[in-house]
Structure formats: structure tokens, C-alpha cells
Amino acid sequence: MLCMWDYRKVGTRICVCFDVSNTDALQTWQETPSVGELTRRYSCGNNCGMCIPYFAELLAEWQRGTWPATGA
Ligand code: FES
């Protein structure tokens, strides 16, 4: 079966180890736009670290205004 996990889809869990979604990230970044803040608040990256590149990409896209997509 093809994996359809889409880290850009709003509401998707990004950090499996600590159950943190990209929605949690968006709420955090309204106040403090950094991946480190996610680690401080939710411990993201403090176990396997697999989520960090995804959060970093989402933060970059959010700051460019390209994520989350509007409309559809
Ligand atoms: S997926 Fe985030 S620390 Fe493992």
C-alpha cells in the first residue's frame, strides 16, 4: 500500500515520538517562530529527531507565505 503521509496537510502529526502536529507548530510559531521553541515546549527532536527537518521545512515555507496553502 502506498504511504500517503503528507507533512504539509494541516493537522498532520509530524513528531510521532511526542505526538505533535503541524497545527501545534503553527500555533507556537504565531508567538515564537523557531523549531527550537517546539523542542522547548513539546520535546520535538529529543528522541529520534526525525521530525526536525520536516518542522524546519514547514517553518521556512510558513515564513515565505507558501504554507499552509490557502484556497483549494
Ligand atoms: S519524531 Fe520527533 S523526536 Fe522522534
Plain-language structure description:
The protein is mainly α and 72 residues long. It has a single domain (13-64), classed as Orthogonal Bundle (Arc Repressor Mutant, subunit A), CATH 1.10.10. It has 3 helices and 2 strands. It has helices spanning 22-31, 35-42, 52-64, and strands at residues 13-15, 20-21. A two-stranded antiparallel ribbon has the order 1-2. Strand 1 (13-15) and strand 2 form a beta hairpin. Helix 1 (22-31) crosses helix 3. The longest helix is centred in the C-terminal third of the chain and has 13 residues, at 52-64. The model has no long low-confidence stretch (mean pLDDT 95). Bound molecules: FE2/S2 (inorganic) cluster (FES).
Bound ligand species: FE2/S2 (inorganic) cluster
Summing up helix and strand content along with how strands pair, one would put the structural category as: mainly alpha
Total DSSP E strands: 2
Order of helices and strands: EEHHH
What spatial order of strands do you see in the largest sheet?
1-2
- Beta content comes to 5-15%
The percent range for helix content is: 40-55%
Mind telling me the CATH class?
A: Mainly Alpha
CA-based gyration radius: 12 Å
Q: pLDDT average, as an integer?
A: 95
The CATH architecture classification is Orthogonal Bundle
End-to-end distance, in Å? 26 Å
Main beta sheet, described? 2 strands, antiparallel
Number of domain modules: 1
Number of H- or I-type helical stretches: 3
CATH topology group: Arc Repressor Mutant, subunit A
What is the global morphology? globular
